[in-house]
Specification:
Elements lengths: L1 E2 L12 E7 L2 E8 L1 E6 L2 E6 L5 E13 L6 E13 L2 E6 L2 E3 L5 H19 L7 H18 L3
Parallel strand pairs: 2-8
Antiparallel strand pairs: 1-3, 2-3, 4-5, 4-6, 6-7, 7-8, 7-9
Length: 149
Amino acid sequence: MAVNGASTAHEPPGTLHVRLLTPSGTLYEGAASAVAAVAEGGALEILSDHGDLMTPLEIAVLKVSPPGGEPVTFAVHGGFLEVKPDEVRVLADAAESGGDIDIERARAASERARRRIADASTGGEEVNVDRAENARKRALLRLGVTGRG
């Protein structure tokens, strides 16, 4: 397993080779016994020998469970999940591991978005509500991945 690193593409039998890619590079690459994600159609858990799949991802948690290790969680801000029988590739618009998230910044973003949504509901300042709701969803996701939300 490697966060911000690399491993070989040959994993032990019964495991998946997982790659989490963002526009800035590889965020995670390594072996996993399972990968849990939220696609537009709902929650998925991918195990070894899963059938081929390509699906858009929601703004949600991605959980990678290394064999015999603690799960690693990421905040994934949209993208695509590609599954082959023993390989999972996540092409994320943006993603962060819990350890890389600035908690105070995420809290401030959540509060800022909450205020913008409230302003829109009271007829205050002109607000793009969908954009504000997505910003709040991303901020709450980031806080949830840190375990301190």
